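pasting for the record
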Amino acid sequence: MASMGFDVEAVRGDLHIVDVGTIQKEVGKGSTKPWMEFLRRTLTTKKDIDGVDLLVIDSLEALEVLAKFEDRRTELFRFFEWLRDLGGTTLVLTEASSDTPFLGLEPPQPRRDETFLADGILELKMHPISDVEVQRRVRILKMRGSHHRTGFSALVFEDGRFQVTPVISP
Protein backbone atom coordinates (compact mmCIF):
# COMPACT_ATOMS: atom_id res chain seq x y z
CA MET A 1 0.00 0.00 0.00
CA ALA A 2 2.79 2.41 0.90
CA SER A 3 4.56 1.79 -2.41
CA MET A 4 1.40 2.93 -4.21
CA GLY A 5 1.19 6.14 -2.20
CA PHE A 6 -1.45 5.11 0.32
CA ASP A 7 -1.17 6.26 3.94
CA VAL A 8 -0.77 2.94 5.75
CA GLU A 9 -0.93 4.53 9.21
CA ALA A 10 -4.29 6.13 8.41
CA VAL A 11 -5.92 2.71 8.00
CA ARG A 12 -3.83 0.58 10.37
CA GLY A 13 -6.63 0.30 12.97
CA ASP A 14 -9.25 -0.43 10.33
CA LEU A 15 -7.38 -3.07 8.35
CA HIS A 16 -7.35 -6.58 9.79
CA ILE A 17 -5.47 -9.37 8.05
CA VAL A 18 -6.27 -12.98 8.81
CA ASP A 19 -3.31 -14.90 7.46
CA VAL A 20 -3.95 -18.48 6.40
CA GLY A 21 -0.50 -19.41 7.77
CA THR A 22 -1.75 -18.47 11.23
CA ILE A 23 -4.86 -20.58 10.74
CA GLN A 24 -2.70 -23.51 9.60
CA LYS A 25 -0.66 -23.23 12.82
CA GLU A 26 -3.82 -23.11 14.94
CA VAL A 27 -5.41 -26.07 13.20
CA GLY A 28 -2.14 -27.96 12.83
CA LYS A 29 -0.60 -29.46 9.71
CA GLY A 30 -2.04 -32.81 8.84
CA SER A 31 -4.75 -32.24 11.42
CA THR A 32 -8.18 -33.77 11.04
CA LYS A 33 -9.74 -30.63 12.57
CA PRO A 34 -12.19 -28.98 10.18
CA TRP A 35 -10.19 -26.16 8.57
CA MET A 36 -13.23 -24.40 7.08
CA GLU A 37 -15.01 -24.42 10.43
CA PHE A 38 -12.00 -22.76 12.05
CA LEU A 39 -11.94 -20.15 9.27
CA ARG A 40 -15.65 -19.46 9.73
CA ARG A 41 -15.25 -19.04 13.50
CA THR A 42 -12.27 -16.73 13.01
CA LEU A 43 -14.06 -14.53 10.49
CA THR A 44 -17.27 -14.41 12.52
CA THR A 45 -15.28 -13.34 15.59
CA LYS A 46 -13.49 -10.65 13.56
CA LYS A 47 -16.83 -9.35 12.30
CA ASP A 48 -18.46 -9.37 15.75
CA ILE A 49 -15.52 -7.82 17.63
CA ASP A 50 -13.94 -5.51 15.04
CA GLY A 51 -17.04 -4.68 12.99
CA VAL A 52 -15.51 -5.90 9.74
CA ASP A 53 -17.87 -5.20 6.83
CA LEU A 54 -15.51 -5.88 3.90
CA LEU A 55 -13.88 -9.27 3.51
CA VAL A 56 -11.41 -10.27 0.79
CA ILE A 57 -10.62 -13.94 0.16
CA ASP A 58 -7.32 -14.22 -1.72
CA SER A 59 -7.60 -16.64 -3.44
CA LEU A 60 -10.37 -19.16 -3.94
CA GLU A 61 -7.87 -21.65 -5.37
CA ALA A 62 -5.69 -21.37 -2.23
CA LEU A 63 -8.74 -21.80 -0.02
CA GLU A 64 -9.70 -24.97 -1.88
CA VAL A 65 -6.26 -26.47 -1.40
CA LEU A 66 -6.10 -25.62 2.30
CA ALA A 67 -9.67 -26.73 3.02
CA LYS A 68 -9.25 -29.91 0.96
CA PHE A 69 -12.66 -29.67 -0.69
CA GLU A 70 -13.94 -33.14 -1.43
CA ASP A 71 -17.16 -32.13 -3.18
CA ARG A 72 -16.17 -28.77 -4.68
CA ARG A 73 -19.59 -27.70 -5.94
CA THR A 74 -21.44 -28.46 -2.71
CA GLU A 75 -18.76 -26.97 -0.45
CA LEU A 76 -18.54 -23.81 -2.55
CA PHE A 77 -22.32 -23.45 -2.42
CA ARG A 78 -22.28 -23.76 1.39
CA PHE A 79 -19.35 -21.34 1.68
CA PHE A 80 -21.01 -18.68 -0.50
CA GLU A 81 -24.26 -19.04 1.45
CA TRP A 82 -22.33 -18.61 4.71
CA LEU A 83 -20.63 -15.49 3.31
CA ARG A 84 -24.06 -14.02 2.44
CA ASP A 85 -25.34 -14.80 5.93
CA LEU A 86 -22.25 -13.13 7.43
CA GLY A 87 -23.41 -9.84 5.93
CA GLY A 88 -21.22 -7.12 4.54
CA THR A 89 -19.37 -7.26 1.25
CA THR A 90 -17.06 -10.10 0.24
CA LEU A 91 -14.62 -10.08 -2.64
CA VAL A 92 -13.46 -13.54 -3.65
CA LEU A 93 -10.40 -13.42 -5.88
CA THR A 94 -9.80 -16.18 -8.40
CA GLU A 95 -7.00 -16.79 -10.82
CA ALA A 96 -7.68 -15.63 -14.34
CA SER A 97 -7.41 -18.09 -17.16
CA SER A 98 -5.27 -17.16 -20.10
CA ASP A 99 -6.09 -17.66 -23.74
CA THR A 100 -2.37 -17.72 -24.48
CA PRO A 101 -0.32 -20.88 -24.03
CA PHE A 102 2.58 -20.52 -21.58
CA LEU A 103 5.84 -22.29 -22.41
CA GLY A 104 4.01 -24.16 -25.16
CA LEU A 105 1.46 -25.62 -22.72
CA GLU A 106 -2.25 -25.25 -23.18
CA PRO A 107 -3.82 -23.09 -20.47
CA PRO A 108 -5.97 -24.97 -17.96
CA GLN A 109 -9.69 -24.63 -18.40
CA PRO A 110 -11.19 -22.72 -15.48
CA ARG A 111 -13.84 -24.28 -13.30
CA ARG A 112 -16.73 -21.87 -13.11
CA ASP A 113 -19.05 -23.07 -10.35
CA GLU A 114 -18.27 -19.85 -8.49
CA THR A 115 -19.57 -17.71 -11.36
CA PHE A 116 -23.08 -19.03 -10.76
CA LEU A 117 -22.83 -18.47 -7.02
CA ALA A 118 -21.42 -14.92 -7.09
CA ASP A 119 -23.72 -11.92 -7.17
CA GLY A 120 -21.16 -9.95 -9.16
CA ILE A 121 -18.09 -10.65 -11.26
CA LEU A 122 -15.41 -8.06 -12.00
CA GLU A 123 -12.61 -8.88 -14.39
CA LEU A 124 -9.24 -7.14 -14.16
CA LYS A 125 -6.57 -7.55 -16.79
CA MET A 126 -3.40 -6.03 -18.14
CA HIS A 127 -4.03 -5.20 -21.81
CA PRO A 128 -1.07 -4.63 -24.17
CA ILE A 129 -1.47 -1.33 -26.03
CA SER A 130 1.97 -1.38 -27.65
CA ASP A 131 5.12 -3.49 -27.65
CA VAL A 132 6.23 -1.85 -24.39
CA GLU A 133 3.08 -0.54 -22.71
CA VAL A 134 0.16 -2.20 -20.97
CA GLN A 135 -3.01 -0.70 -19.60
CA ARG A 136 -4.97 -1.87 -16.57
CA ARG A 137 -8.54 -2.64 -17.59
CA VAL A 138 -11.67 -3.56 -15.68
CA ARG A 139 -15.14 -4.71 -16.65
CA ILE A 140 -18.28 -5.92 -14.96
CA LEU A 141 -19.25 -9.32 -16.28
CA LYS A 142 -22.11 -9.81 -13.86
CA MET A 143 -23.87 -7.68 -11.28
CA ARG A 144 -27.05 -9.34 -10.14
CA GLY A 145 -30.08 -7.03 -10.15
CA SER A 146 -28.50 -4.17 -12.11
CA HIS A 147 -28.07 -3.01 -15.68
CA HIS A 148 -24.46 -2.25 -16.58
CA ARG A 149 -22.02 -2.02 -19.43
CA THR A 150 -20.08 -5.21 -20.01
CA GLY A 151 -17.21 -3.76 -22.01
CA PHE A 152 -13.76 -2.95 -20.65
CA SER A 153 -12.84 0.45 -19.18
CA ALA A 154 -9.35 1.69 -18.41
CA LEU A 155 -8.34 1.53 -14.75
CA VAL A 156 -5.89 4.37 -14.24
CA PHE A 157 -3.77 4.79 -11.11
CA GLU A 158 -2.35 8.29 -10.63
CA ASP A 159 -1.47 10.35 -7.57
CA GLY A 160 -2.53 7.57 -5.20
CA ARG A 161 -6.01 7.23 -6.70
CA PHE A 162 -7.73 4.82 -9.05
CA GLN A 163 -10.02 6.18 -11.76
CA VAL A 164 -12.15 4.31 -14.27
CA THR A 165 -12.14 5.96 -17.69
CA PRO A 166 -13.20 5.00 -21.20
CA VAL A 167 -10.68 2.92 -23.13
CA ILE A 168 -8.88 5.15 -25.62
CA SER A 169 -6.65 2.73 -27.47
CA PRO A 170 -7.62 -0.66 -28.93
